[in-house]
Specification:
By secondary structure, this protein is of the alpha+beta class. It has a single domain, classed as 3-Layer(aba) Sandwich (Aminopeptidase), CATH 3.40.630. The chain contains six helices and eight strands; from the N terminus they run H-E-E-H-H-E-E-E-H-E-H-E-E-H. Strands 1-2-3-4-5-6-8-7 form an eight-stranded mixed β-sheet. A hairpin with a 3-residue loop joins strand 1 and strand 2. The longest helix is centred in the middle third of the chain and has 13 residues. The protein starts with a helix and ends with a helix.
């Protein structure tokens, strides 16, 4: 992939996203404490392969990698309260395959089961499908909450790699969803 093409994609994917409930904006170093506060709950990571990400030293690595990610990392913020609810990212853009991945998503438990995840993914998928044909999600095989949420979005499980199930959603299927 040319550096110019990646640069163009970076610009497209760093633009904030929002609806009436949430704002997704680029993460900065200043967001660390609020994000860690949301992520420090052990239950968030219980079904995740990085089950110790609630620890400050493990979360710091996750956070730093997100800041270095080519397509950035979003802070998920409540528009009503301003509270940081979690984070997510686009990653692994593949120009040749015309696809990318969405993941590294976590939410404060206060918004579990409220539809916030669906709203966030809808915003991200609507943006992604302006430029790519397929979106992949790598999900730890024991992360049943995430698998259920992806199925509700219309993503289907595909190949397995190691301890992950790769879910896929293509633009044609996404456009059929009301």
């Amino acid at each position: 992939m040319s550096s110019g093409h990646l640069s163009s994609m970076k610009t497209r994917f760093h633009i904030p996203l929002e609806d009436e409930v949430v704002l997704l904006r680029s993460t900065t170093e200043a967001d660390y404490e609020a994000l860690y506060s949301a992520a420090s709950d052990r239950e968030i990571w219980a079904q995740h392969n990085a089950h110790d990400r609630w620890k400050p030293e493990v979360f710091r690595v996750f956070f730093e990698e997100g800041l270095k990610n080519d397509l950035g990392m979003f802070v998920i913020q409540s528009k009503m309260t301003g509270k940081i609810l979690g984070s997510t990212r686009y990653y692994k853009y593949d120009a040749e395959g015309n696809c990318l991945r969405i993941g590294y998503t976590f939410f404060d438990r206060s918004v579990w089961g409220t539809g916030v995840n669906t709203k966030v993914k809808k915003l991200m998928l609507d943006r992604a499908f302006q430029w790519v044909d397929r979106v992949f999600f790598d999900v730890y095989e024991k992360n049943f909450r995430s698998q259920k949420a992806l199925k509700k979005l219309g993503a289907v499980p595909g190949e397995r790699t190691g301890d992950k199930v790769i879910f896929v959603l293509d633009r044609v299927e996404w456009e059929k969803i009301p």
